[in-house]
Specification:
The complex is a heterodimer of chains A (about 350) and B (about 300). Chain A is built from eleven helices and twelve strands. Chain A has about 350 residues and is α/β, with parallel strands linked by helices. In chain A, the strands form two sheets. In chain A, strands 6-7-8-3-9-10-12-11 form an eight-stranded mixed beta sheet, with helices on both faces. In chain A, strands 2-1-4-5 form a four-stranded antiparallel beta sheet. Chain B contains twelve helices and no strands. Chain B has a single domain, classed as MetI-like fold. Chain B starts with 13 loop residues before the first helix and ends in a 6-residue tail after the last helix. By secondary structure, chain B is mainly alpha-helical. Classes of the chains: A alpha/beta (about 350), B mainly alpha (about 300). At the A-B interface, α2, α3, α6, α7 and α8 of A face α1, α9 and α10 of B.
Chain lengths: ~350, ~300
Amino acid sequence: MSAPASYKVYMPPVPEEIRGGKAQPLLIVDKLKKHFPVRGGVLNRVTAVVKAVDDVTFEVQKGEVLGIVGESGCGKSTTARLVMQLIKPDSGTLVYDGDPVGAFRGISVSQLRRKVQMVFQESFASLNPRLSISDSISYAPKMHGTARAEAEERTERLLRDVGLNPAQFARRYPHELSGGQRQRVNIARALALEPKLLILDESVSALDKSVEAQVLNLLVELKEKRDLTYMFISHDLNVVEFISDRVLVMYLGKVVETGPVDEIYRNPRHPYTKALLRSKPSFDPAHRTTEMPLTGDPPSPLNPPSGCRFRTRCAFAESICAATAPELDATPDSPPQHAVACHMFVAGSGHSRAISGGLV
Amino acid sequence: MTNVPAYAEAKGGQAQVASAEVRKQPANEVGQGYWRTVWGRLKRDKVTMTVTFILLMIILMAIFAPFVTAYDPYAGGIMRRLKPVGTPGHWLGTDETGRDMWTRIAYGARLSLLTGILPVGVALAVGGLLGIVAGYAGGIVNTLIMRTMDVFYAFPSILLAIAICGMLGSGMTNAILALSIVFIPPMVRIAESVTTQVRTLDFVDAARASGTTTSQIIRHHILNNVMGTILVYATSLISISIVLSAGLSFLGLGAKPPEAEWGLMLTSLRQAIYVQPLVAAIPGFMIFITSMCFNLMSDGFRGAMDIKLNK
């Protein structure tokens, strides 16, 4: 039902709450790719390419917590920055609540940035040392035209929401706070524009364990109070298990496995996920980890291995793994949200341990 | 997720959190602004306060030169040439044409301070801007600006100043212009390197992520973080500027006689060095004291502004 171009149809604005509908994922990331050129030589030519994020595809449902795990250097943080458009992706599309980002009839990058906010790992570096806490929090609303009085009132409310007494903290400067307090301020700052999606990039990793727990509880509390959706990036498997509804496992710029948190933690499929979970220290002395589940560092993303990127460290690697890269696909015997990128779970892939159609 | 179990046992009340996490810090510094903290530290720094006081005196002496002396800086007298220090009526003696030294020093401070401060001010504005732009933009803009500045680095600063002055001709304005050009490249370098450091910090990304424009980021987030370092560097350049401008005048490229300027006074009095060594040394002593004070003041500022250290 499209109107002629010359004919303007009155379209009432859609309220934000029902935009896209409940079943529409809040964020769809499709084939996101970022390759960093490495320059060198006399003429500053591109000598190599770091494949930081390579064809990453995932969805974030409304109201869920998507955990992203992986070793350092696997592209977790780059993915976060690509979603925020802090780094321009080479290719791939973002769809926010049904609206493509930066495309015709979609929403602009700056509109996206009001709805998606980010909390960084370094609590000190992510606050301007020359601005007081309240100035830092109220900065973005003021820049977007919120009246001074209203912005300050909102700042006070936010400080209270993150568990800091405004009378005590509003006029302080970042160096006068502890790491945990600073991270609370960073969360308040991210919430100042009233976003729907919060990207938490290793946001609790640099904190002491007890403070980390407090901040995690705060995040859970805020999520319920404000109806938020989180993308929670961390290398800490325990924290991800606690907070996430769904988990995405990344390895060298690729998604290797994704699924509901229980599915991933109880029933991991991909050899990398298995190794990752086995590397978790056990509290039970009877089950201490005696042999290393994985040895060595991940290969350099400069020249990633051909085919499956994990094959150089995988105990089950065969010639098929070097030949073709496995697709991220649903496994036949588990809930449909559980997908894995491994030849062993594709019937007839040519791998000797490949499942036979329908059976494990 | 309504009945989420608390992560670990640490679900303490929020009120406790606030007090338990407070870090140890000098109580008098908590909650006050950055510049007030800097001022509080400066007040406790005796050396910086002393040299700042001396500089203030010299500046006041320059401004109120007609009031601190009864003589005309240009009126000489053949009968009272080269009187020694301590002569009644001329407590700093007289120069080779019989002009009162104290009067000449007081009036000379005007030109000497002007040629010390103005070129640095010009370099601060031009070089600071170029450096911040180069540092924030990066890439080709950075290369273009920084390589151009490198060309100036090929010459020693005093030679460059002499060359520019020689080209433009002597005179105060040209000397100031030449010194400004000499000071722009180091200023650009400092501004560029500090900006490059600040630009990569997460709070700049956080500002970008909340839709702040580039010019707003530079004005509100970059400038207040790089200004301290640039200003400290500029104060240290003032002492060099004073010495260089005195050098230009000494070579006859700056102030012209009979103007009162410390460098020029040093030149004209050098013939009298065997007759009245003490009198001949006075302008040099003033140059030394002033540039020393600016140097020490800049050191003091650097220390007081370095608040990030107690992170």
